[in-house]
Structure formats: C-alpha cells, structure tokens
Design a protein that fits this description.
single chain, 10 helices
Length: 227
C-alpha cells in the first residue's frame, strides 16, 4: 500500500519537475543568446519562460541580467506586459518604473506608469504623470482623456458642494451671493476650463460621443457662470 501511495505521489509531482526543468533549460537558452549577442532570440526565449513560470523569470531578471545592457530594457518590457495582462498592477508598475528611470522623458513609459498608478488607486501620482506627458506631447490622447474626465469630475464635486452650501442659506445677503458667484467662477477656471481644453483635443483626434456630451455640459455651466 505504501509503495502504491509513493507511486501516485510521484505521478503528481512529475509535471512540476518537468516544468522546473523546462524553465531552467529555457533560462539557459536566454543566457546563451545574450552572450552570443542574439538579443531578438533572447527576448523570444525569455517570453516563453515567462509563460512557464513568471516568478522564476522575474528572479532571473533581477539576478542575472546586467541592468546597464541594451537587452535589459527589452526584458523588462516583457515582464511589465505579462504582469499587466495578469492584472498584477503592482508588479507591472515596478517594471515600467524601472524603464522610466532610464528614460525619464519617454512618453510611452510615462503613459504606462500613469495607467498603472490609476489602476493601483494612486490617482494623484497618475495625474502628475499625465500632466508631465502633456508638457512633452500636448496632443497625447490618453493623457487628454484622463485629464479631461478627471478635471470634470473634480469640478462637478466642487460645484455640487458650493450649490448645497448656498441652498442652506434661507435668506442670502448680497455679499453671500457674491461669494457664491466668485466660487463658481473659480471652479470653472480651475476645473471645467481645464477639462474643456483637454476634451477638445480628444475630439479633434477621436470623435468620442461621451466627450462631446461632457463638452456640451461644460458649455451650459459656462453660460450659467457668466450670466
């Protein structure tokens, strides 16, 4: 009976042993290709190894790859893409950040980092990155979509609070009314106007129905503020 149990356990452990062996073999191929200067082949092997065991592949990257080499960035991209596909946004951000540190003004890496920060719930840092993207590339679609919607939602929240607080005053004085109007103007210039500027750029590149609806709402609010 004991011998039979050991036999069945060995059957279950066999796929794991084969997987570990195949991962090691593929990683050896990655190393050999890198040493031979065959970067394209190395990336191909590395991608296959990721599909076998992403954790082992990541450990190989940190311990065996020269971070100053040309191949380093290519392998980091593969890991970032794989972790993003698996919705592991923390790890994906880690590798996109690694790439961004080497190229601080690379718009593609900035965009990827910003997207991952938003997915991780770090909207403020994502906002900062999207704003930097617009400094480098004012017409960037992803940045304008995010900033247009972000500033609109923030402005809506501030306007709602202003309206709610003002409606609580049963008999507002002229001074209170003037303060309310000044508050509306500030919300428009600091929020709605920024949203409009970004969404107008979106419309020029991508005829979005939702973006146009938001722009129409902003126009109505502008008329309300300026009346």
């Amino acid at each position: 009976m004991r011998a039979l149990t050991i036999f069945f356990l060995s059957l279950f452990s066999l796929p794991l042993m084969l997987n570990a062996q195949s991962v090691d073999e593929m990683l050896q191929k990655v190393s050999a290709a890198i040493e031979a200067g065959q970067n394209g082949q190395a990336v191909s092997y590395f991608r296959q190894t990721i599909s076998l065991n992403i954790d082992r592949t990541e450990m190989y990257y940190w311990t065996n790859v020269d971070k100053n080499s040309e191949i380093s960035s290519k392998l980091a991209i593969e890991l970032a893409l794989a972790y993003k596909k698996h919705r592991n946004f923390d790890k994906a951000y880690l590798f996109y950040k690694e790439l961004l540190q080497k190229n601080p003004n690379d718009v593609d890496y900035l965009e990827a980092c910003a997207e991952m920060q938003v997915c991780r719930g770090q909207e403020k840092d994502g906002l900062r990155m999207y704003e930097k993207i617009l400094q480098l590339e004012p017409e960037n679609l992803a940045a304008n979509i995010f900033l247009g919607n972000y500033y609109y939602l923030m402005a809506e929240r501030e306007k709602k609070k202003l309206d709610t607080d003002y409606k609580k005053i049963s008999s507002p004085t002229k001074m209170q009314y003037a303060r309310y109007r000044d508050g509306l103007s500030q919300v428009f210039s600091s929020g709605y106007q920024k949203a409009r500027d970004s969404l107008q750029k979106v419309i020029l590149r991508f005829p979005s129905t939702e973006a146009q609806k938001t722009l129409d709402k902003i126009l109505r609010i502008e008329k309300e503020v300026n009346r």
